[in-house]
Structure formats: C-alpha cells, structure tokens
Design a protein that fits this description.
By secondary structure, the chain is of the alpha/beta class. The protein has a single domain, classed as Alpha/Beta hydrolase fold, catalytic domain (Rossmann fold, 3-Layer(aba) Sandwich). The chain is built from seven helices and nine strands, in the order E-E-E-E-H-E-H-H-E-H-E-H-E-H-E-H. Helix 2 crosses helix 3 and helix 3 packs across helix 4. It is globular, with a radius of gyration of 18 Å.
C-alpha cells in the first residue's frame, strides 16, 4: 500500500492510497487511544463520481470512532474497462423495455465483477490491518450487494455487514446467501427504480444469519433517509467492539 495524498479536516484524516494499480481512500480519526475497528465501504464503482456520498458515510462512521476505507471497483473510474462487462451493462438497461429476461444478463454482468473484486477487497484488508491505527473486527457497509454477500461468506475477519439492496444478484448466489451467518442489516429503498424489490426480499429471506434486520424505506435509489447513518453506526457499535487503550505500567 502506497499513500499518495492526505488531508485533515474536523479531526478526520483522509488519505488516498494505491494498492498496486487499485486506488482507494482511508479515513481515520486524527488521534485515537487504541486501534479503531474498520468498516469497508462498498459502492457501485466510479469513486470520483461517488466520492461525496462515500465520504459522507465515512466521516459519519469516523465521528463515532471507526476507521473507514474503500477501493475502486474493477472497471470503475480510471481502471481499464472490460468490453464484455460494458456490453452486459448495456443489455441490462435495454432488457426491461424489450420485455426480455434478465437472469442471464445479470450473470454476465455481476459474477465476473464479484470474482475479481472480492480478492481485491481481501488484499486491501490485509494491507489496512497492517496499519497500527487500525484493528479488527471488521465490518462491510454498502453495495454492490453481491460483493458484500461473497465477502460475508468467505472473509472470516468480517464480523458484521450492512448490505445495500440496490443492485441485482445472480440467482446462483442465493445458495451462497444461505451460508452467510454473520449479523446482517439490509437497507432497501422500496421504490428503487433500478432494483428488483421482490428479489431483494427473497435474498433477505435466504440469508442464513440468525440475526438479520431489514430496514425498508419509501423512496428511490438515492433517497436513503439521513437517520439510516445513525442506525448503521449503532449496528456496527454492537458488533465491532472498540479495543481498550493499553495502560502504562506503574
């Protein structure tokens, strides 16, 4: 991990970094008496475009004593485009108007993205947890929900996840959802124009976690109520306990 820039504002330090050719951002409290639990912030790609929303989520979390980090998705921002992914995205936009089935298109779009993005997230997690100001346990917050689902299943360092139900999930991944057992909070915008509401409800039902909560709010994709930020912090405060400061000997 190579840090490329930093700025300090309101007691929050924001650092840009590069993990190989993958750009990312890390937010931490300016000072902390003990390593801060880490929340990985998922997003749909295009970190420059998403920055205002992701940074707001990060700052809200850091104000409560967490560290927060994100990385650019494969094909997002300045990362190389994948022609097959671009074609699948175009096909998915066209399919509803043509009344065509979307399952095969979703598989072409999402499965390769998950297969590439999850190892990158895990490599970023290795690097982030090597920093002295960051400690476990770790949470995942956001979308793409299929990426969060896979991480929740395969990454033992993730202790809890808040998943944004705003993107399609391949039907083949429902079996993976049944193997997810960590505490979950799922956020669903009831009138999300780009999401399949029934699929999101079916996915929530499929998750194998004994503790899972669904927060459903009226409104479109970007209409998440501000109070959900506080609800997210309460969820992670329950499941990502902060380390106690190490006292000096007498």
């Amino acid at each position: 991990m190579r840090f490329t820039s930093q700025r300090l504002d309101d007691g929050i330090r924001e650092r840009a970094f590069a993990l190989g050719d993958i750009p990312g951002l890390l937010w931490t409290p300016e000072t902390t008496p003990a390593p801060a639990p880490l929340i990985l912030l998922g997003h749909p790609g295009g970190l420059h475009r998403m920055y205002p929303r992701v940074a707001a989520r990060a700052r809200h979390a850091v104000a409560e004593g967490f560290a927060a980090a994100t990385i650019e998705l494969p094909g997002g921002g300045d990362r190389p485009r994948c022609p097959t992914t671009e074609q699948a995205r175009a096909d998915l936009l066209r399919a509803p108007a043509a009344e065509e089935p979307v399952d095969e298109i979703v598989d072409r779009l999402v499965l390769p993205l998950v297969d590439q993005a999850v190892p990158e997230w895990r490599a970023a997690l290795d690097a982030l947890l090597s920093l002295p100001e960051i400690g476990g346990p770790v949470g995942y917050s956001g979308g793409v929900i299929a990426i969060g689902l896979r991480l929740a299943r395969v990454e033992p360092r993730i202790a809890a996840a808040l998943l944004f139900a705003g993107s399609f999930v391949p039907r083949a991944m429902f079996e993976e959802a049944r193997q997810v057992t960590i505490p979950l909070q799922v956020l669903l915008q009831w009138d999300d124009e780009g999401n399949d509401r029934q699929m999101a409800l079916d996915l929530f039902d499929a998750f194998g976690s004994q503790e899972k909560t669904l927060h459903a709010n009226m409104g479109g994709h970007t209409g998440v109520p501000p109070f959900e930020g506080d609800a997210a912090n309460r969820f992670f405060a329950r499941h990502l306990p902060r380390a106690q400061p190490t006292g000096r000997g007498h």
